[in-house]
């Protein structure tokens, strides 16, 4: 029996990958009147914010400036959803900067399903109009490129195997690991560049394409009466005995290196603590925020809701102990094995918490810890997808290096400006332990801009990166990889594709002519995309 012929679609812009960058790219192109096909591998759109379940990592000025208008709409939409649908206390309902989880990592710690609801609402009118076609769950499996022009991308339904060939004037890669780069023949790099190539002080002497930041398979839990201990994992002893040389203890412990001092540091784990004992970090430069694992990324705090609404806080686990160091998931035949191992490590940590973790009262284990798959849309309590920190990255017309943005190298913490800026971002250069055996790299960073040249491939003409796959290095990706920056990258990529289609240009044309850069920047500013910082100091 012959296979069914592939379904074919034609569109203006194909956006492959429905994470934050992909959603922002699609919205930007749609508001310019363009037709878009958007594909996503997992059941939920939103990537690191939803299917990976990680609340937003943001800079300390996020409530005032430093994000795009549409990203601000996403944030405010999340808060409004809680006000409309949840039994908030009067104080929480009146709080203009409502933080439902009151976690330390962010001023907006929330449940991933709420972000999904807001993203769905933002896309709804475009789905109704028919200008947006959404393909889920689909993965890219092939592409056709002729003389540096991508003609089509083939997407495969993960469950049925049915293929759809999408022909588009522009193709944007918003996948988590830059999956379209090898398929389209777009030049790219992976892993760590060496100092001998980039001159970056924090880089290793020589490059290693397989040395990437660890991934982590997150999970969500609460604590209630009863015994909710999961079945002992068959490979538990393996993970229980794992103790990297630089860790200071076993991975299955409350000890992990401090990102800034690299000295082993033992975190606390206070189950359902009184609200008065915790708070949101006021200055990322002074408070790493993760000293208590319960409140670090808590996504629903009992005190936010009317008495009796929650039996327990709800907590998202994205902790150092979940960082998987066993190997890269990029350009390796062992990708699936590494993904299974990353999830197995997290599963063993759950079992350790329930059975062996030291409690403040001198006992061991919290059998009342309960995985909450309903919160993340899975049966097993783990996120739908692994948290990906590092992608393939295009060989770009401009690559951002540590010397551009690091406070120590630049000699000051003022904004790192680029004449061709298409957005802004801010985060410390924050690299988790890597598959090459490196410890944390945590470096003071200036408020930075996103250069247009970092979005333009050296050769491919109608292809744009729209996520963590822009022209950064292994080092600078550590700052450019976070939620609002990925959204800004995607939004600017979507705007650039529409700008080029309206004027019969290529991104290289725009980048090469200062007058076109200025015209494009004016379009971005009109769309609510900040392209420059005020005079502030990085941390």
UniProtKB/TrEMBL annotation:
The chain crosses the membrane at residues 12-30. GO terms for molecular function: L-aspartate oxidase activity. It comes from the Bacteria. Keywords: Membrane, Transmembrane, Transmembrane helix. GO terms for biological process: NAD+ biosynthetic process. This is FAD dependent oxidoreductase.
């Amino acid at each position: 029996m012959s296979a069914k012929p592939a379904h074919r679609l034609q569109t203006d812009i194909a956006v492959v990958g429905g994470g934050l960058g992909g959603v922002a790219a699609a919205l930007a192109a749609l508001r310019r009147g363009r037709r878009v096909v958007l594909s996503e591998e997992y059941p939920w759109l939103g990537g690191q914010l939803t299917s990976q379940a990680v609340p937003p990592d943001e800079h300390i000025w996020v409530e005032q400036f430093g994000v795009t208008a549409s990203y601000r709409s996403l944030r405010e939409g999340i808060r409004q959803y809680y006000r409309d649908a949840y039994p908030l206390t009067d104080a929480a309902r009146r709080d203009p900067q409502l933080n439902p989880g009151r976690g330390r990592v962010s001023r907006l710690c929330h449940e991933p399903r709420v972000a999904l609801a807001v993203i769905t609402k933002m896309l709804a009118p475009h789905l109704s109009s028919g200008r947006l076609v959404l393909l889920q769950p689909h993965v890219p499996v092939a592409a056709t490129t002729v003389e540096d022009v991508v003609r089509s991308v083939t997407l495969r339904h993960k469950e049925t195997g049915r293929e759809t060939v999408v022909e588009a004037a522009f193709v944007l890669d918003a996948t988590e690991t830059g999956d379209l780069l090898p398929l389209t023949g777009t030049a790219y790099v992976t892993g760590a560049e060496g100092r001998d190539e980039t001159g970056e002080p924090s880089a290793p002497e020589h490059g290693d394409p397989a040395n990437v930041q660890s991934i982590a398979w997150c999970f969500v839990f609460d604590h209630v009466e009863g015994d909710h201990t999961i079945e002992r994992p068959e490979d538990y002893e393996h993970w229980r005995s794992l103790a990297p040389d630089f860790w200071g203890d076993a991975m299955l412990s409350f000890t992990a290196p401090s990102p800034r001092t690299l000295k082993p540091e033992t975190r606390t784990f206070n189950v359902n603590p009184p609200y008065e004992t915790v708070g949101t970090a006021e200055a990322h430069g002074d408070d790493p925020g993760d000293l208590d694992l319960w409140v670090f990324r808590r996504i629903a705090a009992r005190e936010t809701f009317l008495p009796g609404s929650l039996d327990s806080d709800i907590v998202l686990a994205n902790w150092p102990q979940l960082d998987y160091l066993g190997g890269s998931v990029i350009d390796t035949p062992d990708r699936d094995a590494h993904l299974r191992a990353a999830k197995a490590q997290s599963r063993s940590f759950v079992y350790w918490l329930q059975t062996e973790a030291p409690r403040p009262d001198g006992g061991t284990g919290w059998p009342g810890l309960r995985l909450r798959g309903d919160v993340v849309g899975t049966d097993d309590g783990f996120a739908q997808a692994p948290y990906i920190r590092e992608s393939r990255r295009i060989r770009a017309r401009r690559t951002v290096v540590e010397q551009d943005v690091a406070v120590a190298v630049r000699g000051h913490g003022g904004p790192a400006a680029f004449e061709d800026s298409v957005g802004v971002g801010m985060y410390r250069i924050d690299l988790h332990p890597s598959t090459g055996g490196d410890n944390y790299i945590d470096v003071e960073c200036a408020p930075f801009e996103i250069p247009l040249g970092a979005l333009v491939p050296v050769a491919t003409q109608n292809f744009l990166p729209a996520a963590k796959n822009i022209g950064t290095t292994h080092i600078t990706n550590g700052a450019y990889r976070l939620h609002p920056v990925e959204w800004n990258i995607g939004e600017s990529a979507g705007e650039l594709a529409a700008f080029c289609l309206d004027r019969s240009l290529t991104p290289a044309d725009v980048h090469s002519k200062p007058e076109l850069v200025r015209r494009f920047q004016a379009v971005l500013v009109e769309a609510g995309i900040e392209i420059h910082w005020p005079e502030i100091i990085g941390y």
